[in-house]
Specification:
Strand order of the largest sheet: 3-2-5
Helix content: 25-40%
Largest sheet: 3 strands, antiparallel
Structural class: alpha+beta
Number of strands: 7
Strand content: 5-15%
Radius of gyration: 20 Å
Distance between the termini: 61 Å
Order of helices and strands: EHEEEEHHHEHEH
Low-confidence stretches: 1-6, 8-13
Mean pLDDT: 79
Oligomer: single chain
Amino acid sequence: MIQRSKTLPEKATAHGKDIAVLAVQTGRPAVDISGRMDPDGLLTWEAPPGAWRIMRFVASRSYEVAEAIDWTDDLADEFRKQHGYDPLPYLPALFDPSALDPKITGRFLYDYRKTVSDLIIEDHFRTVRDVLAKSGVRLLAEAGHGGSARVDALKALGSADIPMGEFWNHERFWVTKEAASATSSPRTPCP
């Protein structure tokens, strides 16, 4: 059976980049069929017997998106360096944790979130702090975030010269205590 998909609307691809096209059967490893999609978004693939779901992963160029879809051009390479395996076959777990083997899903999600956290801390907070330090300026940052953080909050706050917290999350002193804790954590000193 040949399955074909229409090209995504221009809005969906104008501000994004294709990461992978995967074929998924519940509870089984995903099959990377990215090479079966042409540059216009037409997918031609002869699916083996069974119920398959096709998942196309497109990275957005905005930080203000759903928690699970952070991506950069070097994320897959950094993930491989940190964890020793390819993240692409496990991407379905980001959107539907029941799509893959539950034993693998939990490990992958932990590894993915750790990689995202490490990249945000190193490539954003520490880089900004180091650039500012060259001009004698100190970084004051709400690096831990007061909601669904994409970072290890104490590690991120510890990357700022002056960690601070938000105050409007309706949890009395929670984020300010987090920021205060970061000042007692091991930190990377500014040069």
